[in-house]
Structure formats: structure tokens, C-alpha cells
Fold these 3 entries.
Entry 1:
Amino acid sequence: MSRKNRRREVALFVDTANCRNVDFEQVLRIVRRHGELVVAQAYGNFSNHSYLGETAEKLFLLGVRLIHCPAWHTNSSQLKSAADEMLMNDIRTLVQTQPDVTRFIICSGDGHYIPTICEIKKWGKEVIVMADQDGTCRLVQEAADKFIPLPPVAVPVPREVFQTLVKAVRAVQRAQSKSVVPCGNIKTKMTELLREFDEKKYRGRRGHPFRKFSEFLNEAQSEGWVRLIRQDGAILVTTPLDQPQAA
């Protein structure tokens, strides 16, 4: 394949201390949308099993190289880690030794990385920062070419969310004077009743996060909360109690 037609090569660097409660499987999916992943490394004090044990196992099984970074207590009893410095040094080395890597993705919102981000861009490379939306330094977002919020670990759907779904269906049924209503109207009503609702925060019984609202509805149907009807490519929604067979 010619250089012109080749996909962009991507390098991923994860500061695990700044990536709590993150769905790393989702992170890798997002990263691979941005090019061919040729380097994937995570940095942390992996000797602390109670702190990073589960994270280390997930990253290792996903094929991410684990870089152990020692940590120690300072005179002020604060924990100091070498992770930041080791990560930044490895980025500088990669920038200079692997010119085909043109896109760098840093999983951390720490302001310490701003000089490194600027240095990468001076070499004509693109920098993407993935980090927690609320805990990310504003200057980091501005320094990067692109900012992507880290996807949180999806949790099982609480019963209260399914109950809100049923309320939404019935509210739309009343408003439209119909027993079978379009799923798009249901999503709108769900967000009115539950402002923070986002199906991507939840996962199905098989452990996979929902990527779209229709997958959430399929799960609700399998749990007996709603009934779906597919008609001319559209998904219509009703509740089991609205069906004569379920009476």
C-alpha cells in the first residue's frame, strides 16, 4: 500500500491515575476509528494492586503495554509518581524515532502535559486528548487539536430507568392518542423525565454498552417492560399491557 493511501498511524498513551472508572474497551474502539493503532501504552504504579489491579488486568487483556512507574511519599506525605515524566519522555522519543506516527492520543486531562502537547504539534503531528469532561484542565482542551470525553464504565440498567421508560411510552401514547408510538418520540420524552438519561451509560445482560437507543429498547423488551414492532424500517413502541394477548 502506498504512503498516500495508508491509514494514519496512531499512538495511544494512558495515564491510569487520571482514568478512573473508564471503559477501556470503548476507549480502544474510539482510538481505532482515528487510524491504525501501532503503539498503546499505559503508565501507573501497577504494584499497588488495590488501586490499579483491575485496571491493569483490563488493559493487559486489551493488548495495551503496561509501563510500571514507581511512586513514593514526599516529605509532605503526598504520593509522587514518575508516571507523568515517563509518559512524556516516551512520547518525545516516539515523535523523533517513528515519523509515520502522525496522531498522538493522550488519555489524561492533567495540565502537566501541555508542554508535551505543544512539542508534538511543533513536529507537525496531531494531538487528541481523551479525558474526563469535568476534571480536565481547560488549557489542555485548548492546546489539543481535538478533545474527546472518556466513556465511563457502563452499568446495568437500574429498575427505575426501565420504569421511567414505561412512563415515557404511556405519556406519548396519551399525547398522540395511539397505543403504538414511534421510538424517536420515546427518547425525547425519556430525556424530559430523566434529564441525565443517556443509553450509553448502561449495558445489557451480555455486558456490552448500548451504542444507540434501539439497543436499549431491545433490552427493555427482553426484560418485559415494552414491546417493539418493526414496520417499514421504523421501530414502534408499546407496552405489554396495551396488548390484548397480555391482558
Note: Residues 155-246 form a domain with the Arc Repressor Mutant, subunit A fold (CATH 1.10.10.10).
Entry 2:
Amino acid sequence: MIVLKDVSLSLSVEEALTIGGLSRIADKIDNLGDLLDECVGLIRPAALYNYLKIERVIQEGVLVEDGKLLSSPRLAEELKCATEIAPYILTIGPDLERRVTETSHSRLLDSWILDNLGTYALRLLTRHLEERIKAEKGWEISRFSPGSTPSWELDQQEVIFSMFSKEKVQEAIGVCLTDQFVMIPKKSVSGIMGQTETVYHNCQECQKMCEYRQVPYREESPRKLPASVV
């Protein structure tokens, strides 16, 4: 298990305005720089990850070492040529989340902006980890997160956490998983990264109208795997 703490992230006002709905109200925000500084002072970016060998790809999902099954036909399709995956969990910590709650009682707009900036920071942290894994493995990386799309259920968070053990995750980066498979702090992400034939993104499966969309929706279904792969 590889643990990264106090990861340095370079947040900018210009890039922040591309996240969520901030661009729509840019002309009404005169304190974005101050809120960005506040955000930087509150986040504690941390991550952990590991590399696991794929033992077998089956129709129902991907079987990795130690007998753990990542149950998703989509994963089976996208990772059919991969030999290894990188499970990961990352977070920006609880302090910004607390400030968002506190601020919401008297400065609702600032609270909303801070929450969006937290999403921005989390996205940068994910990008940082992706670039690190790409440098270590030379992969053309695709990311998959349980619960982000209908093709990989939220309860698969349990499998991700079991790859490290819940106790070690909480001790290393302060993230815990509830019985409802929700991570605390909320600004946390779990999933796997792996090498795919073509780059995949969760957004391509999602039909929702979303301010955080990063790639267009693509209407398709996972194809049936050939018998040689199953």
C-alpha cells in the first residue's frame, strides 16, 4: 500500500471557473480569490493506492488476486486486455466540509462556492494520482468508481476498501466507509485505475444533466465477452 499525504495542488481562479456552475455566476463573484485561498488552507489532500494482478476476467466482472471480485460487466469489457489494476482511495479531508456547513448559516453563496472549490481540489488530486500511476506504469489510464454509474454498484466500495482493509484506510488517510457504503469525509473518492484499449470515463455512461460532466454521454452497452476471455 502506497500512501501519499499533504499532496501539493495548484489551484487557480481560471480553472476553478470551469468547475460546476461557477462559470455561470462568475460576474457576480468578487471574492473568488479569497475563497480559493481559504479552500487551500483547509484541504488536506491525501491518497493511497496499490497494484493488484488480474487473475481472470469473467462475464460478471474482474477477479483479482486474493480472490476478490469486482462485480461489473462494464469492468469486464473495459479491462479485458489488462493484467493489473490500481485500486485507490483519496480525500481532501474533513475541514473544508465543516467550513461549508458553518458558512451555510450566514453566507450561503460563499458556502456553495467553497463546496465547488472542494470538488475542484478533489478532481486535481485525482489527476495528480493518475499522472503518478501513468509515470510508474506507462498505462493509458481509465478510471472507474463504484456508484458513479449504473454499471458498477455503490456496494462495491466495500470491495475497494477490503483491498487495503478498512482499519488501515482510516489510519492512513482518515477515510471510513459507513454501512450504507458512503465515505466520510464526503469529499473522498474510491475506485480503480487500469489500462484500457480506449480511454473510458464514467460520464460517458451517465445521462443526467450535470454541471460536473467532463465528457459527453455515449449511448452504448457493454459487449458480450468472447469465450476465450471468459
Note: The mean pLDDT is 85.
Entry 3:
Amino acid sequence: MSIEIPELPDATILLVEVGSTAHGTGLEGGEDHDELGVVVESREEVLGLDPVGRPTVMQRTQPDGVRSGPGDIDRTLHSLRRFVRLAASGNPSILMALWAPVEYATNEGRELQSLGNAFVGRHVIPRYRGYMQSQAMRLLGLRGGGHGRRGGGGREQLIEAHGYDTKYAMHCGVDAVEGSAVADGRVAAAHPRRAGGVASSSAPRGSVL
């Protein structure tokens, strides 16, 4: 049974499509819809005594422990302060949101996306390298597969069909292409659709690595 996701907060300035479908790397007919939003904190949240302010909120059309399927939505809402802080640190998931397909944007949201290149530099390379290495270690079984703990665990259907989790391989390719483009200031071109075929291919794991 699906859960209805609440309306966006009034202070939302940006909502973008992220994840496999945004990259063009999803499995045809088998993907949920991932969204990332940015919300401006209220005066009370910024100036109050709470050191956290507005917390990051995750909203899903499936309850925790149930895997999202086609038509389901997974939405993450960050405060503007947290979003900017993560972007400045070179967080790959946050950086790519600055060039992701827009689902909703105010003038402030569009202005935020226009600042994308201000966050780009070679300082992001270790972050992308770290993401890529962690995915490779999970692909090789050298690290526990943390994917999908909120959504029901691993991707056993891919392992059964191909002998390994091809989505980990796809994520390695995405991180490599995006990291290279970001470091060279070509972020607008970092749309690695060519990595998507790995997720549904029968390529041997060794040839992917």
C-alpha cells in the first residue's frame, strides 16, 4: 500500500529529479522516482536555540523496509544551509542536483542552480574517488551492501540474473564520468547515459572493473 507524500513546504525553492532516472541509467520499467528539494529555513530555525535548525527530511511512498518500485517516489528535503554546505564540500549527490532536471523552482531556486560552477574545483576529486571506490568494494563483496536499508535491502534480482549487482557497477561508471567532468569544469556535460547500459547488461564483472 502506497503512502501519500506531503505537499512541499511553502519555503521550498527547488525540487529536482535525481538518481538513476535523472542520469538515464535506470532499468527500463523498474525504477522509482528520486527527488531532492531545497527549503529555506524560517527565522526561528536559523536564530533559535536548536543547533540543528531544519532537519533533513526523507519522504517515501513506501514504508521503511519496503523496496520502492515503479511509480514510487523517494524524496529528500534539505535546508538551504545544509545543501550549500554539502555542495561546498564536494558531495557528489548534492553537486549534481545543481544540473539536474528541474521539477519545481522559484526565482531563488533557479538562481541557486545558476551558481553551480562556483562549487566546482579539483577539491571534489577525492569525494568522487571515494564514492567510486566504495561502490567497487560493494561490487566485489569487500564491503557490506548498504544500499536500500530504508527500502528493503539488496538487489537480489540483479545478482540472480547477472551473477553480481550490476547497479554497483553502473554507479562506478557514473561516479567516474561525473567526477572527471566536474573536476574539468564540464559539469553541464556530466550526464553519463553511457554508464546506464551496465545496469542491465550481462557484461562479466571483471570486464566492468
Note: Residues 147-153, 191-203 have pLDDT under 50 and may be disordered.
